[in-house]
Amino acid sequence: MKNFYGYMRVSSLDQNIERQKKELLHWGIIEKNLFYDKLSGKDFNRPQYQKLKRKLKEGDVLVVKSIDRLGRNYDDIQEEWREIVKNKKADIVILDMPILDTRTNKDLVGTLISDIVLQLLSYVAQSERESIRQRQAEGIAIAKAQGKHLGRFPSPIPEEFYPVYEKWTQRLHTLETASQELGITVSQFRTMIKKHMKSLSDEDSE
Questions:
Q1: Are residues 116 and 15 in the same domain?
Q2: Residue 179 annotated to the active site
Q3: For residue range 86-140, what is the model confidence (pLDDT) as tens digits?
Q4: Distance CA 192, CA 198 (A)
């Protein structure tokens, strides 16, 4: 029996996955089969993506809203696509680009067109990432020249942190399993714990 899985990604902890989640649920993915990471798309070393990938077997279907949610590195996207479709013999559906649906267009011409579109979109995703990095670097240079604050302002702790944190304090989660459930790294989870503890300390001192 084939399983349908959805994958979501945003680049930072304070970004919201709800729009992606809504579309995947509407498509028909059940909530327990949704996975997400709050990490950069520069590579595929993301805990929830790797967990999902390990679950994929022949005949399963991976659904993603858009190619840049899968990743933003041209070569890595191509390699992951081949790994899933050719080696695992699972299928991939990109909602924003219906031609990128490996369940259809399996003839020679359809495969060729899909490969060309995939290469083009992968190139665009990486180009956009490089453009963002360049704009950030230019913005930092301008801010330095104007003597503005360059430190990273604290982002709010997402609501999903608290129930996972409670499980961690009760030793129902390790740092690793808690981080995986939140779709972040252990280092990010530690940072959130410190921020949470500091907020509690500030409340006590008021």
A1: yes
A2: no
A3: 889 999 999 988 888 888 866 544 455 556 666 665 666 566 656 656 665 655 5
A4: 10
Catalytic one of 11, 155, 199, 201: 11
3-state secondary structure of 37: strand
For residue 174 the two structure tokens come to 């390790």
Task: Specify if 128 maps to a domain.
Answer: no
**Which residues are registered as beta bridge partners of 34?**
6
Q: For residue 173, list its beta bridge partners.
A: none
Q: Does 181 reside within a domain?
A: yes
pTM: 0.62
* Backbone torsion region of residue 107, taken as left when φ is above 0, otherwise alpha when ψ lies between -120 and 50, otherwise beta: beta
143 belongs to a structural domain? no
Neighbour count for residue 105 (Cβ, 10 Å) = 16
**φ and ψ at residue 171, rounded to 5 degrees:** 65, 25
Is 201 found in the same domain as 117?
A: no
Q: What are the angstrom distances between the C-alpha of 43 and each of 32, 37, 80, 105?
A: 25, 12, 10, 28
